[in-house]
Design a protein that fits this description.
The chain has a six-stranded mixed sheet, sandwiched between helices. Helix content is 29%, strand content 20%. It has one domain: Phosphoglycerate mutase-like (Rossmann fold), CATH 3.40.50. It has five helices and six strands.
Length: 161
Amino acid sequence: MKNLILIRHAKSSWEAPLKDFDRPLMKNGIQDAHLVSSNISNFIPKTYLIWSSAAARAAETALIFAQNISYPVESIVYKKELYTFDENQLEKVIKSCSNLFESVILFGHNEAITNFVNKFGDVFIDNVPTSGFVSIQFQADSWDAIHKGKTQKVIFPKDLK
């Protein structure tokens, strides 16, 4: 069995003239990331790996979550190939995960995340918002064999306010 938690990066700032890859989180995004990450302890597996897009806003979100769920920040794996808005690229990266890991928490970007959870989960989600958390369980022994799974939990910041 494989467990995948997808988290869309928190709300980012457009204020500074930066490349998209370098955009930081805005204050409301930081607050939402803390809010969601402080309410997921009952929904994360005992052991897991954290992968994050290397983009600043995803990396910052992963750091906030890691700190709030007591995951060693030095163990976060940053992957440039997760800086994608395409669900097929996201699927390719996920299916490349080592089968030594049963559970992965992944921080990434939309449209890839929304389209992926709708392709692989069993609950339609119109849009995974920033800081949105979606957990999917797969009846598969290897990551490259995942197919339609069961959406276990969905947590969005608006649900906690």
